[in-house]
């Protein structure tokens, strides 16, 4: 499948890197439109073709256009690819907020459109990729797109598009919450007198180990938490600060709701 990615910043590059490095996508059939010279250089290092401006369909012959620009500029940028969709190219968008109907307004509802919410661990095959497709997207296209997304991590098909704002708030933005948790744990270590390097190592290795223990889903995270918590021990003392009055749960609900509301705002 000839893939043309439009915009290759933090998220687009994270996805493309795994597509190419896994061997799922050949660099020969990959193009990237990216105005930033630095952005083009790192794509060129993967062996893919780069363009500062949209290539004509005759020049590239894209079968899949991947829209990976910011939602705020999508309406200005996406119409340049109408000639490619008119010749049969499908569209995969990773933009937050923008519903499928927005793309149908640009390309027509006969154009196959898939909307996916990725996250940055996609670069190392540990992402969470949640998608939904319009009626025009056939089984063969969806199977091919899933093959690409599987190189990025776990893949889930949503039941309805209305779930996408909540998905964005949880898994799309979620890595940033976890990174901030790691920052906060490391800073707490420094406040307790540890060196910055040691505190940072303890924080990130602890997050990694805990995530790996929880990753297979076989043991409930609440049970994993209980396994660390000796009665009247150190963990119980620490957790009381997080759990009294559901302090952390209340904060996480507020965090996720703010992100979901912003996703809804971006759609209008
Ligand atoms: N960063 C993340 O963790 C996630 C981002 N997303 C979505 O991914 C999309 C991209 O976000 P980021 O990669 O974070 O932003 P970014 O700013 O890193 O990347 C956007 C890229 O688009 C390029 N660009 C600007 N004008 C262009 C044009 N006319 N043609 C082609 N490319 C153009 C920019 O040079 C830049 O490299 C957004 O829609 C965002 O909602 C979705 C999930 C997670
Ligand atoms: O912050 C954002 O809007 C994008 C979407 C999800 C993660 N990053």
From TrEMBL:
<protein>
    <recommendedName>
        <fullName>Pyrroline-5-carboxylate reductase</fullName>
        <ecNumber>1.5.1.2</ecNumber>
    </recommendedName>
</protein>
<comment type="pathway">
    <text>Amino-acid biosynthesis; L-proline biosynthesis; L-proline from L-glutamate 5-semialdehyde: step 1/1.</text>
</comment>
<feature type="domain" description="Pyrroline-5-carboxylate reductase catalytic N-terminal">
    <location>
        <begin position="4"/>
        <end position="97"/>
    </location>
</feature>
<dbReference type="GO" id="GO:0055129">
    <property type="term" value="P:L-proline biosynthetic process"/>
</dbReference>
<dbReference type="InterPro" id="IPR008927">
    <property type="entry name" value="6-PGluconate_DH-like_C_sf"/>
</dbReference>
<comment type="similarity">
    <text>Belongs to the pyrroline-5-carboxylate reductase family.</text>
</comment>
<dbReference type="Pfam" id="PF14748">
    <property type="entry name" value="P5CR_dimer"/>
</dbReference>
<keyword id="KW-0560">Oxidoreductase</keyword>
<comment type="function">
    <text>Catalyzes the reduction of 1-pyrroline-5-carboxylate (PCA) to L-proline.</text>
</comment>
<keyword id="KW-0641">Proline biosynthesis</keyword>
<keyword id="KW-0521">NADP</keyword>
<dbReference type="GO" id="GO:0004735">
    <property type="term" value="F:pyrroline-5-carboxylate reductase activity"/>
</dbReference>
<feature type="domain" description="Pyrroline-5-carboxylate reductase dimerisation">
    <location>
        <begin position="161"/>
        <end position="266"/>
    </location>
</feature>
<dbReference type="InterPro" id="IPR029036">
    <property type="entry name" value="P5CR_dimer"/>
</dbReference>
<dbReference type="GO" id="GO:0005737">
    <property type="term" value="C:cytoplasm"/>
</dbReference>
<feature type="binding site">
    <location>
        <begin position="68"/>
        <end position="71"/>
    </location>
    <ligand>
        <name>NADP(+)</name>
    </ligand>
</feature>
<keyword id="KW-0963">Cytoplasm</keyword>
<dbReference type="InterPro" id="IPR000304">
    <property type="entry name" value="Pyrroline-COOH_reductase"/>
</dbReference>
<keyword id="KW-0028">Amino-acid biosynthesis</keyword>
<dbReference type="InterPro" id="IPR036291">
    <property type="entry name" value="NAD(P)-bd_dom_sf"/>
</dbReference>
<dbReference type="InterPro" id="IPR028939">
    <property type="entry name" value="P5C_Rdtase_cat_N"/>
</dbReference>
<dbReference type="Pfam" id="PF03807">
    <property type="entry name" value="F420_oxidored"/>
</dbReference>
